[in-house]
Recover the amino acids of this structure.
């Protein structure tokens, strides 16, 4: 008994230590975002700002078109979420519930690319986007919202995730709807999809976070400030303003807020998709 | 009409009606799959084949493109920069995988015994996971800043000499490892926590009755019960760490003197800085072979350790 208490106390001790280590850099970032440059340069550093300089936020936002970056990221993330929910649920439902010739082959093809690293298709995707001039002028979709959206539209992850969810649903409701004379489209839209709300929420949260945090693709496929996303803007901000840490941390805090809010509101959904995340 | 027939009768029946119902179902399936699969082929499947083709050419955006056979692959294997990048990537991935698996497992085991504050702890550990790699990299760039950073402040506090961190060829890679373990531990913890919650309590009770202490219970109950989670996590962690790019691009640009140049960073440079897209594609496929090879070796090792069929 005594030993169990000691073990539990030790567990809490180490957990608190680890939680401190996990959160400490964020605290450092947050407090740093309010410091003056003089205070940043002070050694040994202070933890709490001597005076809270709220203007850092205004200045950081003014030095680069962050509002535009935010709008771009939000727009692309929203479009990606909408497209992924619609397309993945339709395809996932078909693979989980409908019988058709070629099902195994098609699903095998989708599944086989799920572990395919994104960087392998980076160059061809770039060339593809640059060369859709048939529709979109000499630069194709380079430096456009369509171009930014491209990789997330071909993702196999959502299809796989939704299929796995639909497989766990009982078939009875769908079958009784069919008995009542409902067509396949109605069965999907009216019966299966409403039951899939939790999975759709989890997938939506997942796609939003992935899109909001994306860096490599926006880096490759945009070249003007008007098209930059938040992450790209942040990295370039560092390049332009070097070690102006206070302003950079202010921008960092603002850029992190949306995902942190989504995370705190929808924590359980993150946990649901975590096991699948490796397949991105 | 086939659709009308499907509406009138349940699926799976025999005869004419069953046949038309099946046909209606197949039609619906193709309708549902049309757009998603078209996009999948255009943006995922075709680019893969295109990349393979590129890797056998000297494609460089400008000028004529020639088929060069295995020349790109041969060049990469001789290329000092590529070999160095492979060594850096493997060392980095090994340290990161070990770090995130060990810390993730430790956190999960500790948390599994916790009654109070579970969701708070989990949120704290998951916060670095939802943060973008760019934000994490910028934040840690400041932490590692020799003059104003938290790392040197902590070192001098305990009487150790300050370091140059990211500008030091010996320390830059370990510094990136530390950042990446900080960022990834919570994700791996969630995987282990989910697996731990499926372990029946009775197993621990029985082990305790047999006189097993905490370590023996971990060694003989927890670890065997987690073997699938460990295997899964190993594959995920390894393939992820071998593809590191963002933290390198933001924090060190591959430096100092190539000490943190990973293969994906090299691929990126070859493709978009030097426009050697054929060569970059060959390097990309060589890395993919490495990823498959290393994860397969790891899986084999897990099997030899017993347990995983």
């Amino acid at each position: 008994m005594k030993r169990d208490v000691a073990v539990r106390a030790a567990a809490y001790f180490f957990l608190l230590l680890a939680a401190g280590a996990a959160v400490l850099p964020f605290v450092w970032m947050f407090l740093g975002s309010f410091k003056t440059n003089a205070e940043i340069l002070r050694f040994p550093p202070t933890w709490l700002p001597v005076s809270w300089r709220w203007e850092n936020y205004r200045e950081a936002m003014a030095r680069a078109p962050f509002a535009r970056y935010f709008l771009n990221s939000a727009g692309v993330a929203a479009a990606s979420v909408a497209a992924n929910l619609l397309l993945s649920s339709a395809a996932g439902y078909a693979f989980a519930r409908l019988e058709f010739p070629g099902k195994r082959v098609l699903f095998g093809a989708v599944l086989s690319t799920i572990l395919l690293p994104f960087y392998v298709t980076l160059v061809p995707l770039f060339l593809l986007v640059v060369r859709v001039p048939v529709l979109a002028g000499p630069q194709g979709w380079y430096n456009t919202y369509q171009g930014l959206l491209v990789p997330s539209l071909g993702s196999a992850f959502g299809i796989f995730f939704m299929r796995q969810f639909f497989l766990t649903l009982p078939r009875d409701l769908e079958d009784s709807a069919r008995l009542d004379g409902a067509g396949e489209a109605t069965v999907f839209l009216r019966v299966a999809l409403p039951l899939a709300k939790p999975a759709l929420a989890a997938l939506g949260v997942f796609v939003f976070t992935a899109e909001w945090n994306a860096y490599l693709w926006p880096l490759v496929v945009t070249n003007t400030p008007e098209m930059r996303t938040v992450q790209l803007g942040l990295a370039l901000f560092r390049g332009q303003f070097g070690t102006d840490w206070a302003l950079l941390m202010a921008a960092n805090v603002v850029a992190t807020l949306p995902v942190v809010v989504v995370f705190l509101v929808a924590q359980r959904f993150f946990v649901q998709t975590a096991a699948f995340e490796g397949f991105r | 009409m086939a659709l009308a027939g499907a509406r009138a009768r349940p699926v799976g029946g025999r005869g004419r009606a069953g046949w038309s119902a099946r046909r209606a179902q197949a039609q619906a399936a193709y309708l549902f799959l049309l757009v998603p699969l078209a996009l999948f082929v255009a943006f995922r499947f075709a680019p893969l084949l295109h990349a393979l083709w590129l890797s056998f050419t000297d494609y460089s955006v400008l000028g004529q493109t020639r088929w060069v056979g295995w020349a790109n692959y041969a060049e990469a294997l001789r290329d000092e920069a590529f070999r160095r990048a492979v060594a850096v990537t493997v060392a980095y991935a090994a340290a990161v995988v070990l770090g995130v698996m060990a810390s993730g497992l430790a956190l999960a085991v500790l948390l599994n015994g916790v009654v109070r504050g579970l969701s708070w702890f989990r949120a704290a550990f998951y916060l670095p996971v939802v943060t973008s790699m760019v934000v994490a990299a910028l934040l840690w760039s400041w932490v590692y800043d020799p003059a104003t950073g938290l790392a040197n402040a902590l070192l001098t506090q305990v009487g150790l000499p300050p370091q140059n961190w990211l500008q030091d060829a010996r320390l830059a890679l370990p510094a990136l490892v530390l950042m990446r373990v900080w960022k990834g531990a919570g994700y791996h913890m969630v995987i282990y926590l989910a697996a731990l919650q499926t372990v029946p309590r009775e197993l621990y009770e029985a082990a305790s009755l047999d006189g097993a202490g905490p370590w023996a219970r971990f060694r003989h109950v927890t670890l065997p019960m987690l073997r699938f989670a460990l295997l899964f996590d190993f594959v995920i962690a390894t393939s992820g760490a071998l593809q590191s790019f963002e933290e390198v691009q933001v924090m060190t640009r591959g430096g100092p003197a190539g000490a943190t140049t990973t293969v994906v960073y090299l691929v990126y440079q070859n493709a978009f800085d030097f426009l050697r897209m054929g060569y970059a594609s060959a390097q990309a496929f060589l890395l993919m072979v490495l990823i498959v090879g290393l994860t397969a070796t790891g899986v084999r090792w897990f099997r030899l350790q017993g347990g995983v069929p």
Remarks:
- Chain B touches chain A through 101 residues (CB under 8 Å).
- The two ends of chain B are 50 Å apart (CA to CA).
